[in-house]
Write a structure and sequence with these properties.
The structure holds 2 protein chains of 2 kinds.
Chain A lengths: L1 H20 L4 H6 L10 H22 L3 H5 L8 H15 L1 H5 L2 E2 L8 E2 L7 H15 L6 H27 L2 H13 L1 H4 L9 H22 L2 H17 L3 H18 L4 H18 L8 H4 L4 H22 L3 H28 L8 H7 L3 H5 L1 H5 L8 H8 L2 H14 L3 H19 L4 H28 L31 H29 L8 E4 L5 E4 L1 H12 L5 E3 L5 H8 L2 E2 L8 H12 L2 H10 L4 E5 L10 H15 L22 H5 L1 H7 L15 E2 L4 E2 L10 E6 L5 E6 L7
Chain B lengths: L3 H19 L4 H27 L4 H25 L11 H23 L1
The chains are: A mainly alpha, B mainly alpha.
Chain lengths: 743, 117
């Protein structure tokens, strides 16, 4: 840092000294306002520039996430955020103790759900604290506004942490670039737009904060920083289940440092304090419970903890003995006995079942084919599919090729911090390749490493432009990686076109960065700002048409059904129904009970009379289905139907998937399987649809989402009656008739 | 493995050289070492008790053991930071190291008291 400040100082002094030494006269003040006229010293100028950049980046990160609030309204998006909103509402109304001990009988009828013990409270408590702070300052905002804007606020905070982290790993220039990159990177924006009130919004902030504090603790060796990183870890555990990544990456990092011989006393202090205090704090969250000592996913941290004790004990003994021969013997005995004891303990624990094996969610990360064969619920979620290259390009743009360049720079200047960031980048990129959703976890690492590449390259190019011939030029001679490789060795005035080449490269770099900004803003505006609960389309004359059917249906439920009515629908809509419709549901997005979901799936795939039996046994009053045939909406229940069959068939063998397919093909037109044409889901979706003309020139009963004319137009319902269909036929609600009297 | 005869001699020589090297350490470090041994010993007693009686309030057992292990580990960190021979920490005043130690122990025991149940 000091050398670069001197270079900057020398540079600016040489070019600016005449202006700063002379007194500014009236004409110069009135003509232009520049930093020179403020008579600031160079260090203060630099500080001013840095603070200005950080403020602008902070505001930018917040503002770029507001597209959907400006286009639609300030509302909560998608499915999961509605549950988080409902729990936050409960927390602010009833207080923390009621929230912590809440048993909810309005979902998973008749089982209920222990909400207090099965959620990650970090997000709700954070939003509630912000709400209470604003109320204390006499700003009367509704809790929904706080919930909608929590994610952008924490995205802004993430940029600050990214700046500090970049400063720790490389220098303040890289920190500024990292903050700017992460402010607009689409990989992060996708889960933190305004309205996306989900755990990842605060979890990424907590993740980066924990990593920054830990790297700071390793660099300084101070117990205070290690304690801070333990608190950061606690916040992460309270916010998201992805904390498992932290508790496995940090021990892996410690192991790598031990093996490569880069260990030091500071590492011992940092890791031990963080592990013990962090583990204890994490066990205070009821959902996590005792997993830190009982679950296979957390055993790596414990193993490394014991290993580090043995290792440092041996190092200490070696330091006290001055005879290497004796020490070798001791080392052999010590290490083999420690490792064998550890292996035996692990084996006994795993075999006896005390240490639980890796759960399906995380095991499918190591073996991507596992979920498809064994756990259809995990396999059916679209976010859990493996990532395509186009997704990487879409979410990262130029960062994708700056990432290897940054890795190169990190390897050239290895230190504890750069080793950490390299490991974080590589492991997170592997997981991002396995599951689309985890691109989010890789985004901070990719932004940081790319920032190192950008900052180092631009620094070298500008130094070339200024004609600096001092220090470290020989090592950075090959920095112009985009061609023009004539700049080998030290700067030499005899190399022709050196400054022109540097100028061209610098312009190229700025062009690429500006394209990145354009791409990110375009992606945010087009792809990641849709609320999913309100749909929009272009009408015939180009005007915007809004489909607000979901909310229409939920409010119909809220106002027209008895308050103890029970609604059966597919699990996707459960959270929204309880939050907006305020009615009891049978299954919801928590998907904790596979058999219950399979029961609903079986009911949807059976003939009407069998389904009626199942619905009577569950006390169902209303059934809700989502149908996209009139509008061409393709995420409706008919398209999800095969998953209902698979999940139902997984528990009840009476439901067989081939019954619904014709030659392995899924069809709803005349050639469809007879079981398909008469099952409950088909009947409920296509009731009265056969009389409707949906598109000019097509026969009545033309399904616009599947693009075919339906096979069974004459649907008659015996045990249900239609209660409500929304204005665009997207949500359809049916009432289950009570059993007919005996006479 | 090593031949049995030389192992015994090795062990003796090891023991003696360790003893002589250890007696040269300053007294304050020896006090910290004694504290670490005491904490680990307490943890072992708790584990033995759990083996006899069973682990029913598991959170109580965990908090007991982890408080002993935690304070032992923090004392080792203090020893590392206070030891004059460690070049990395020569700028750190021992008062600051002790203050950090007290703060971390305070947090540790507050969490333990919440976890005891």
């Amino acid at each position: 840092m000091v050398a670069k400040a001197d270079a900057v100082k020398a540079g600016t002094k040489s070019s600016h000294s005449p202006a700063s030494n002379s007194k500014p006269d009236l004409s110069s003040i009135s003509s232009s306002f520049s930093l020179k006229t403020l008579k600031l010293k160079t260090k203060q100028q630099e500080l001013l520039i840095r603070v200005t950049i950080l403020c602008l980046v902070y505001i930018l990160a917040f503002v770029t996430r507001l597209f959907s609030v400006l286009r639609y309204e300030s509302m909560i998006h998608e499915f999961d955020p509605y549950f988080n909103y409902r729990t936050t509402l409960y927390l602010t109304e009833k207080g923390f103790y009621e929230f912590w001990n809440w048993f909810d009988s309005e979902s998973w009828y008749p089982l209920g759900r222990i909400i207090g013990g099965t959620l990650y409270p970090g997000l709700m408590v954070t939003a509630a604290i912000i709400y209470w702070t604003l109320k204390f300052l006499r700003f009367a905002v509704h809790i929904r506004e706080v919930c909608v804007l929590t994610a952008p606020f924490f995205a802004s905070n993430t940029t600050i942490v990214a700046y500090l982290f970049g400063k720790e790993v490389w220098d303040s220039g890289a920190g500024l670039v990292a903050a700017a990159l992460i402010a607009i990177c689409p990989g992060y924006i996708s889960r933190s737009v305004a309205g996306s009130y989900d755990n990842e919004g605060v979890a990424i902030f907590a993740l980066l904060l924990t990593f920054y504090l830990f790297v700071k603790a390793v660099n300084t060796g101070s117990l205070a920083w290690a304690l801070a990183s333990a608190f950061g870890y606690f916040y992460m555990v309270s916010a998201w289940g992805g904390y498992v990544f932290i508790i496995n990456l940090i021990p892996l990092y410690v192991l790598v440092l031990l093996i490569t011989g880069r260990y030091s006393m500071r590492l011992y202090v940092a890791y031990n304090c963080m592990y013990i205090v962090g583990m204890l704090l994490a066990m205070q969250i009821r959902f996590v419970g005792f997993q830190h000592v009982q679950s296979g996913e957390h055993m790596a941290a414990m193993g490394v903890f014991f290993l580090i004790q043995v290792f440092y004990f041996l190092v200490w003994i070696k330091h006290m003995l001055n005879d290497t021969k004796l020490f070798q013997a001791l080392l052999r005995i010590g290490v083999t006995s420690a490792v064998s004891v550890g292996a035996i303990a692990l084996g006994v624990g795993t075999a006896s079942g005390y240490i639980s094996p890796w759960t399906g969610r995380f095991y499918s990360l190591l073996d991507p084919t596992y979920a498809k064969d064994h756990i259809p619920i995990i396999a059916s979620v679209s976010e859990h599919q493996p990532t395509a290259w186009s997704s990487f390009m879409f979410d990262f743009h130029i960062l994708l090729f700056l990432f290897p360049a940054g890795l190169y720079f990190c390897f050239k200047r290895l230190s504890d911090a750069t080793i950490f960031i390299v490991m974080y980048g590589l492991t997170s990129m592997y997981f991002a390749g396995v599951m689309v959703r985890l691109i989010l976890v890789a985004t901070p690492a990719v932004c940081l490493i790319s920032a190192i590449a950008v900052s180092a390259t631009i620094k070298n190019l500008t130094q070339l432009l200024r004609g600096k011939t001092t220090q470290t030029m020989s090592g950075k001679g090959t920095s112009g990686t985009r061609g023009f490789s004539k700049q080998q060795g030290s700067v030499d005035q005899s190399i022709p076109f050196l400054k022109d080449g540097a100028r061209v490269l610098l312009l190229g770099a700025f062009y690429l960065l500006s394209r990145y900004v354009i791409h990110c803003t375009w992606v945010t505006s087009e792809a990641y700002s849709s609320p999913s609960i309100v749909l929009a389309a272009r009408g015939a004359h180009g005007q915007r048409v809004i489909f607000d059917d979901y909310r229409e249906a939920y409010f119909w439920l809220r106002q027209n059904t008895p308050s103890d009515a029970k609604i059966m629908s597919w699990w996707d809509y459960g959270y929204q129904i309880t939050a907006m419709g305020n009615r009891t549901v049978i299954v919801d997005n928590n998907t904790w009970n596979n058999t219950h979901i399979a029961t609903v799936g079986r009911a949807m795939s059976s003939y009407e009379d069998e389904a009626y039996e199942i619905m009577r046994s569950l006390d169902v009053d209303y059934v809700l289905v989502v149908f996209g045939g009139v509008t061409g909406y393709s995420s409706d229940d008919i398209n999800k139907f095969l998953w209902m069959v698979r999940i139902g068939g997984g528990v009840f063998p009476v439901i067989k998937e081939p019954d619904y397919l014709v030659n392995g093909e899924y069809r709803v037109d005349k050639g469809a399987a007879p079981k398909m044409l008469n099952c409950l889901m088909y009947k409920l979706c296509y009731y009265r649809f056969g009389e409707l003309t949906t598109e000019y020139g097509k026969p009545p009963g033309y399904d616009r989402a599947r693009g075919v004319e339906i096979g069974n137009k004459d649907v008659k319902l015996e045990y249900l009656e239609e209660a409500f269909t929304t204005s665009n036929w997207i949500v359809r609600i049916y009432k289950v008739k009570p059993p007919t009297s005996r006479w | 493995m090593v031949k049995p005869a030389t192992t015994k001699d090795d062990a003796h020589a090891l023991f003696h050289s360790l003893r002589s090297a250890y007696s040269a350490t300053p007294t304050n470090l020896k006090i910290i070492d004694l504290y670490v041994v005491f904490a680990v010993f307490t943890a072992l007693i708790q584990v033995a008790y759990m083996a006899i009686v069973g682990s029913f309030p598991f959170n109580s057992f965990l908090s007991g053991v982890l408080s002993c292990v935690g304070t032992a580990v923090l004392a080792v960190c203090l020893r590392i930071q206070v030891n004059k021979e460690n070049k990395e920490f020569k700028d750190l005043p021992p008062e600051r190291a002790f203050a950090d130690f007290v703060l971390c122990n305070l947090v540790l025991h507050l969490v333990i008291m919440n976890f005891l149940g």
